[in-house]
């Protein structure tokens, strides 16, 4: 009972910081999937991986951004069904990751102790969702510091993030503070 109460409290806090259209959309598709016992609905990306350590929380949040709330489904047909439900109710707006349609980038990571692939260092996930996780986190490095992040981001055309959440985008931009 205490765990369920903590979970509900956590969901309420999360919904309070999400954009309204995403929070409403997530609620609607979750209810629909539960009511119709919809197979092939796996929920938002954030519910389908675990952090190896809380120390990576900020870096992972920065790396994924709003992609944390993209919904994983088995096929584009399931995504279309859920999108029609959102349209019918005229509420919510979501991005879907159909496992049969998305692809994961084939990435050559640098051999260095200064940077590591975020997907290998920070995340644990079920292999069934590997393509979705790689789709979002495949081109992300976890870097020792900002200078290292800048160097490897440019040289390997990858986004590099420090544990503190400072991001060096592969296109040249810096975010943080």
Write the layout of secondary structure elements.
Layout: H1 2-17, H2 20-35, E1 41-44, E2 49-51, H3 57-64, E3 71-73, H4 76-89, E4 96-98, E5 115-117, H5 118-121, E6 123-125, H6 130-137, E7 140-143, H7 146-156, E8 159-162, E9 167-168, E10 174-175
**Chain-averaged pLDDT:** 91
**How many separate helices?**
7
Q: Point out poorly predicted stretches.
A: none
Enumerate the strands of the largest sheet in spatial order, edge to edge or round the barrel.
5-7-8-9-10
Distance between the termini: 40 Å
How many beta-strand segments?
Answer: 10
Radius of gyration: 17 Å
Strand content: 15-25%
- H/E series, N to C? HHEEHEHEEHEHEHEEE
Which percent range fits the helix content? Answer: 40-55%
What overall geometry do the principal axes of the alpha carbons give?
globular
Q: Tell me about the largest β-sheet.
A: 5 strands, mixed
* Category by helix and strand content: alpha+beta
Description of the molecule:
A five-stranded mixed beta sheet has the order 5-7-8-9-10, sandwiched between helices. Strands 1-3-4 form a three-stranded mixed beta sheet, with helices on one face. Strands 2-6 form a two-stranded antiparallel ribbon. 44% of the residues lie in helices and 18% in strands. It is built from seven helices and ten strands. Strand 8 (159-162) and strand 9 (167-168) form a beta hairpin.
């Amino acid at each position: 009972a205490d765990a369920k109460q903590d979970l509900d409290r956590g969901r309420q806090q999360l919904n309070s910081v999400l954009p309204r259209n995403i929070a409403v959309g997530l609620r609607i598709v979750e209810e629909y999937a539960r009511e119709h016992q919809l197979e092939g609905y796996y929920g938002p990306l954030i519910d389908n991986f675990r952090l190896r350590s809380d120390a990576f929380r900020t870096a992972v949040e920065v790396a994924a951004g709003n992609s944390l709330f993209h919904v994983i489904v088995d096929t584009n047909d399931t995504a279309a069904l859920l999108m029609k439900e959102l349209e019918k109710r005229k509420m919510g707006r979501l991005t879907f990751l159909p496992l049969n349609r998305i692809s994961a980038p084939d990435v050559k990571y640098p051999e260095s102790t200064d940077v590591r692939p975020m997907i290998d260092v920070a995340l644990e996930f079920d292999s069934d969702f590997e393509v979705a996780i790689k789709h979002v986190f495949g081109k992300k490095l976890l870097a020792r510091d900002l200078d290292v992040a800048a160097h490897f981001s440019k040289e390997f055309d990858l986004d590099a993030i420090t544990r503190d959440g400072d991001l060096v985008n592969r296109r040249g931009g810096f975010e943080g503070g």
